[in-house]
Design brief:
Blueprint (H helix, E strand, L loop, with lengths): L2 H14 L3 H10 L11 H8 L11 H12 L4 H13 L8 H10 L4 H18 L4 H9 L4 H9 L10 H9 L7 H15 L3 H10 L4 H7 L4
Helix pairs in contact: 4-5, 5-7, 6-7, 7-9, 8-9, 8-10, 9-11, 11-12, 11-13
Length: about 220
């Protein structure tokens, strides 16, 4: 199977269903940072059904090739397709995929892609290869790129009782004084999510640290 030929077929299928009016609204929601075909998720799911058999058991090298090709396209729905392919074939990932994820995080960055990469792709990767977790998360937390910072804070969102609390707190404390909305929000989100596992621990942390008001509101939203 030629993965790029398959992706071109899917892209052409999307083109035929393009809706300029919806596309305008979707682009506006994303602050006009990206182009869209104007295909909402339910319709995208329907359109992909015909291709699902071909989107299974894709070798690691083809997954990387597909993700990079899709990221090179202008329409945001094709960036989302990269997620579909990567997650469906996660059992075939290899260790070097962390470099791919980092590349996707820092290119064409916005919350819609970064949050999925962080919580779903990176989150799964570090569960599969935990030996890379601390080094890479700490590196990202200290990077000048805010989206890598955000990833370091939120990649454990789905970990629940398996959350590395020391690492979470360490990455948060590097950014508690940041004025950046996306980091304040990430701090609160990560704490709120862990609060479902241990609310008392989160309340203690919030009470003893100088968090921004937004982070505090988010952290204690359900407590």
């Amino acid at each position: 199977m030629d993965i790029i030929k398959l992706l071109i077929q899917i892209k052409n299928t999307y083109k035929k269903q393009a809706n300029p009016e919806i596309a305008e609204g979707m682009s506006a929601y994303m602050k006009d940072k990206f182009d869209f075909f104007g295909i909402k998720k339910p319709l995208r799911n329907d359109l992909l059904k015909a291709y699902l058999p071909q989107l299974k058991n894709i070798p690691a090298s083809d997954q990387i090739k597909a993700a990079k090709w899709l990221w090179g396209q202008s329409e945001r729905e094709l960036h989302y397709l990269a997620f579909e392919i990567l997650y469906r074939n996660r059992k075939l990932w290899t260790e070097e995929f962390i470099d791919l994820f980092e590349e996707l995080i820092v290119n064409k960055s916005w919350w819609d892609t970064v949050d999925y990469i962080a919580s779903t792709l990176v989150g799964y990767y570090f569960e599969k290869w935990p030996k890379h977790k601390n080094k890479k998360a700490k590196q990202w937390a200290r990077d000048k790129n805010l989206w890598l910072n955000r990833t370091a804070i939120i990649f454990q969102l789905k970990y629940k009782e398996n959350t590395d609390l020391d690492l979470l707190f360490e990455t948060i404390l590097l950014h508690v004084h940041s004025k950046e909305f996306f980091l304040q929000k990430a701090i609160g989100w990560a704490l709120r999510q862990y609060a479902y596992t241990d609310m008392l621990q989160v309340k203690k942390f919030v009470a003893t640290q100088d968090l921004k008001p937004l982070s505090i509101r988010e952290a204690l939203k359900h407590g």
